[in-house]
From TrEMBL:
Belongs to the isopentenyl phosphate kinase family. GO terms for biological process: terpenoid biosynthetic process. InterPro entries: AceGlu_kinase-like_sf (IPR036393), Asp/Glu/Uridylate_kinase (IPR001048), Fosfomycin_R_FomA-type (IPR024192). Residues 1-46 are annotated as: Disordered. The keyword Lipid metabolism does not apply. This is Isopentenyl phosphate kinase. One of its GO terms (molecular function) is isopentenyl phosphate kinase activity.
Length: 368
């Protein structure tokens, strides 16, 4: 991304123009879909219960990305506890948490004890549940997808077909663990897979989206928990849908007050954060045409724009996709906060409180 917008991102080692498959994702971010309008007409989602926040639990944040199918248990626990705090009516006050994971975990000697009588007497959960959670795959799913080429399509190939199944087994098992972690914090979460809800793409652009189940669940007080998924594609047979793209689409339908991306770094840097000279970009503005510029800090003499590195097994474009989708969300007039999981900054972002100077992260907002 040049400091004054237009040519957006620079993948390390690549020319400044976007590679073809990423350009496709960028175009996708530009065009709201007819299906979104259909879903919006079916039910007016904001009529009675406006969505406060859509949050992405990044795969890099809640899994150990270098270790196959390994959850970062502490980061996940912290993210769920902070979500609970952000939803709470009485911040700081001791309140009863209604544990909702009643399944028996490996090693548990007996069935879980459920105080059914106590719960039936409780008037409410004491939290505002008008959040949507979307999580990425991290060390679940990306490996299976890249090994088999699911993101490139071609279900006639046995390898791709097997990889599609393996990818879905992996991401849905992560989804189950995340729903359980949220449920243990007393958040009434329900897992929803884009594939199973009939979401599909055409040449990797979202083509059919049924959000009615999500909207109905929000209306009755559940927190939908979606995830990046392997889905069907009208032209390619199949592809991988990133959680970042799901979030942008849901933002178009639900117009939340703000969107939060939690990941393993403090935000967007001017170059990969592994570089000791990387500078954290505090504020990015997006104009009506989709061009964007770095507002804070002023990067004197930066002609290279934002440089991004993407792990070779990442099938959905990593930070590059996140920035493009975040810019499309900001263009809707919805502020986007990108910050590090498990920090005081992530809690403040989840509460929508990023205005003070000492908040560490990247805000992406409309210039209007
Ligand atoms: N310029 C940059 N600014 C910030 N992060 C960058 C940049 N270039 C590369 N990265 C890398 O991007 C990673 C975060 O993006 P990634 O897409 O992996 O996050 P995620 O959403 O948490 O994970 P997932 O896509 O698995 O859900 C960080 O680990 C960071 O090292
Ligand atoms: C099945 C996969 C690999 C989903 C990828 O979703 P993301 O991690 O949000 O980009």
């Amino acid at each position: 991304m040049g400091p004054t917008g237009q040519s957006p991102l620079n993948r390390t080692g690549f020319p400044s123009r976007l590679p073809p498959e990423t350009a496709a994702r960028g175009e996708e971010a530009e065009a709201p879909m007819a299906a979104a309008a259909v879903a919006q007409e079916q039910t007016n989602p904001t009529a009675s219960r406006p969505v406060r926040c859509i949050v992405k639990l990044g795969g890099a944040a809640i899994t150990n990305k270098g270790e196959l199918e390994s959850i970062d248990v502490e980061s996940l626990r912290s993210a769920c506890a902070q979500l609970r705090q952000a939803m709470s009516h009485n911040a700081g006050a001791a309140e009863k948490v209604v544990g909702m994971d009643w399944s028996r975990r490996p090693g548990d000697p007996t069935d879980p004890v459920v105080d059914a009588e106590g719960l039936s007497e409780m008037e409410s959960l004491g939290i505002d549940t008008n959040f949507v959670v979307v999580h990425g795959a991290g060390s679940f799913g990306h490996f299976q997808a890249s090994r088999s080429g699911v993101h490139k399509g071609g279900l006639h190939s046995t390898l791709v077909k097997a990889g599609f199944v393996a990818t879905r087994i992996s991401v849905t098992s992560l989804n189950q663990e995340i729903v359980r972690a949220l449920a243990r914090e007393g958040i009434p979460s329900v897992g929803m897979s884009p594939f199973a809800c009939g979401w599909s793409t055409k040449q990797r652009k979202l083509a059919s989206v049924d959000a009615s189940q999500i909207i109905q669940s929000l209306h009755v007080g559940f927190v939908p928990v979606l995830h990046g998924d392997a889905i069907l594609d009208e032209l390619l047979d199949c592809t991988i849908l990133s959680g970042d793209v799901i979030i942008r689409h849901l933002a178009q339908i639900l117009t939340p007050k703000y969107v939060v991306f939690l990941t393993d770094v403090h935000g967007v840097y001017d170059r990969p954060p592994t570089d000791p000279n990387a500078v954290l970009l505090r504020e990015i503005e997006v104009d009506d045409s989709g061009s964007w510029s770095i507002v804070k800090p002023a990067l004197e003499g930066n002609t290279k724009g934002v440089e991004i590195s993407v792990a070779s097994h990442d099938t959905t474009g990593g930070m590059e996709t996140k920035i493009l989708e975040a810019a499309a969300i900001a263009r809707l007039g919805v502020d986007v906060y990108i910050t590090k999981v498990g920090t005081e900054h992530s809690l403040r972002a989840l509460k929508g409180d990023t205005s003070s100077e000492d908040w560490l992260g990247t805000v992406i907002r409309s210039s209007k």
